Amino acid sequence: MPRFHFKIKHIRTRYSLHILLIIILVAASISFLALRQSEKGMKDIAVSVERLTGDALLEQMNRKAEVVVATLAQDLINPFYYLDIETINRLFNTIKTQEDVSYVYLYYPDGKIVSDGTDENPLLGKILTDEISKKAQATDKLLLQTKGDILDVTMPIYIHGEKLGGVRVGFSLKEIRDDILRQKKTIVSISQRSIKNTLLVSIIIGVILIIFGMIFALRTAQVLVQPILKLTQVSRKISQGDLAVKVDIKTGDELEELSGSFNQMAVDLKKSRDEIENYSRTLEQKV
C-alpha cells in the first residue's frame, strides 16, 4: 500500500505554521478557560439566587402563617371558652377560604379534637397520634413544623392563664415550591443563554486572534527567514563563481556573524583564485 508523506519545503512556511499553531493553542486555551469560568460563575449565581429566593418565599410564608394563626387563636378565645361551635365553624370557614389552607383543628389540652371546621366534624373527640400532632399538643407557644408539602402551625389558646387547648392550621407549600421550581427553571434558562453567548464571544475572539495570528506569523516568519534567504542566495552566487558578492545582514545575532563568515570566505576564495590565476599566467609566460 503506498504511503504518502507531506513535506513542507520552505522554511518560511514551517516557521509560519509553527507560530500559528502556538497562537491557535493559546487562543483555544483562553477561550476554554473563559468558558469554564463563565459556566462555573453562572452555576454559582444560579444556586445562590435559587437558595435566596426559596428561603425568602418560605420565610414570607412562615410570617404570614404566624399572623393568621395568632389572629385566629385570639378570635377563638371566647367561642372556645363557651364552646360556641357555630362561631368556631364560621371562623374556620373564613380561614379555609384561603387557597393554601389544607386543614384547621381546634383541640383540648389532652389532644382531643373539638372541631375541624366541618358540619360533620368526623374527628370530634379523637386524638391524632402522629409525630407532628404530638409535638403540637405538647407545645405551650407558637410552633411551626414542616412535613412534606405542609406547614403545620400551632398556637395554644389561654384564658386568664389557663390553657383551654390550641388551634392548628395546615398550610400547603406546594404553590410556594412550584414557584421556586419555576424560578429555578428560569435561572437555568438564563444561565444557559449566558453560557451560549460566552461561547459565541469566545469563538469570535478566537477567530480574530487566529486571523491576526496568521498575519503576525507570516510577518515574523519573514523577518526570521529573510537573513537565511539572503545567505542562501549568496551561497548560490559564490558556487557559480561570483566571489564579489557580499551579504548585508544586520540582526545583531549569530546570523550576522554567519554573514560575516560568508563575506570573509568570499574574500578568501577570491584571493585564492586571483593567486592561482597569477600563478598560471606566470607559468605561461615562462613557457
Keywords:
single chain; 287 residues; five-stranded antiparallel sheet; 13% strand; rod-shaped
End-to-end distance, in Å? 67 Å
Number of strands: 5
Helical content (DSSP H or I, runs of 4+): 55-70%
The shape, in one word, is rod-shaped
Average pLDDT, rounded to a whole number, is 80
Q: Spell the H/E element sequence.
A: HHEEHEEEHH
Report the sheet with the most strands, covering strand number, pairing sense and barrel closure: 5 strands, antiparallel
Spatial order of strands in the largest sheet: 2-1-5-4-3
Strand content: 5-15%
User: How would you classify the helix and strand content by structural class?
Assistant: alpha+beta
**Poorly predicted runs of 5 or more residues:** none
Helices, by number, come to 5
Q: If you compute it from the alpha carbons, what radius of gyration comes out, rounded to the nearest whole angstrom? A: 46 Å
Overall description:
66% of the residues lie in helices and 13% in strands. With 287 residues, it is of the alpha+beta class. The two termini are 67 Å apart. The relative contact order is 0.12. The model has no long low-confidence stretch (mean pLDDT 80).
Describe the SSE topology:
Elements: H1 11-81, H2 85-96, E1 101-107, E2 113-115, H3 131-138, E3 143-147, E4 150-159, E5 162-172, H4 174-239, H5 254-286
Antiparallel strand pairs: 1-2, 1-5, 3-4, 4-5
Question: How would you briefly describe this protein structure?
Answer:
The chain is an alpha+beta fold and 287 residues long. It is built from five helices and five strands; from the N terminus they run H-H-E-E-H-E-E-E-H-H.
